[in-house]
Amino acid sequence: MSKQNLTTHSRLHTGESWYACSQCGKRFSSKSGLCQHTNMHSGKYKCTECGKCCGSGKDLAEHKRHHSGEKPFGCSVCSKRFTRSSHLVKHSRIHSEETPYKCHVCYKTFSQRSHLEKHLIVHTGEKPYKCRMCDKAFSRSGDLNVHMRVHTGEKPCKCSLCNTSFSQSSSLQQHKHSRFHTGENWYTCSQCGKRFSSKSGLCQHTYMHSGKYKCTECGK
What we know:
- Among the domains are: 1-68, 2-Layer Sandwich (Double Stranded RNA Binding Domain), CATH 3.30.160; 71-126, Double Stranded RNA Binding Domain (2-Layer Sandwich), CATH 3.30.160.
- It has 9 helices and 14 strands.
- The chain has helices at residues 3-14, 31-42, 57-68, 85-96, 113-124, 141-152, 169-176, 179-182, 199-210; strands spanning 19-20, 27-28, 45-46, 53-54, 73-74, 81-82, 101-102, 109-110, 129-130, 137-138, 157-158, 165-166, 187-188, 195-196.
- It is elongated.
């Protein structure tokens, strides 16, 4: 990496943006980024179908594929196709298990830059995703989505064995490995030997032996 490229790259971490757009004030860490952005204001690369302005001829060509449905970049392993070569590169890492993006704090690696950027928030303690109903904050958008189910009552995680639903996948996994499905019965009645998967189930059963709740008409 050249000194100039290193300087430009460092601004991604420091937040420095030296090049400002004179039309909208948006700032960029490189001159090329600013030049590409200004093309969008000029309308030089404008889509004739939807009017969207792109920063370069390449971006415009890639954008037009969304209208045409063309996907010229195909995966050689699973034949999945993409509109952009960059999307194919990211996808290919699923098969190669390549993880080129490394966290400088804990050295955990990721297949995509966006995943690394989301991970870094764990170390900074930043919690940008706030619940609009109780003001609880989270470092990841996924955690906020799961939390929102507390307010909405949504339970999208359904057990395939008994159709019981849960708000979190972790609760579903715990349920699947519980005594309810494994058939384990740890609580045994000392009077008749019947076994139960919960202590409350055993307690309720022992009332039948005690006659505490006995029907005066039929003796049940």
